[in-house]
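User: I'm writing a tutorial on reading structure tokens. Could you give me a worked example: one chain, its sequence, then its tokens, then a sentence or two explaining what the tokens reveal?
Assistant: Sure. Here is the example chain.
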Amino acid sequence: MHTTEIGTTESRLGTVKYVRLRKRWHWNPRKGLVNLVLLMFVLFFLLITFYYSATKSQGQALDQSITVEQGDTLWDIALHYYPQADPRRGVAEIRSLNNLKTAIIYPGQILRLPY
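And here are its predicted structure tokens:
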């Protein structure tokens, strides 16, 4: 910021008065619009970043895996892990999540369970 103090000086040319000059801030619509667009872009980027990190961590926290043991059936697994729900719905969700075409499962097979 350039300023000059008010005062007088004596010189060969006579008395010279200095006036304090202040640079006033003025709104520049073009710069304001550019800054607004940049701010919106940064906020949008942060929002998307937090959204994807939250959904990724939720997906990992909500999935549960089990290993099928001898004699297990999808019906028994659905009854055990979802006792309050209809077992048919549990079986359908387990099949869908694990891409099973039939209800046949084998010992040692790892199944992902929803919620």
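What the tokens reveal: Strands lie at 7-11, 14-18, 64-67, 110-113. The chain has three helices and four strands.
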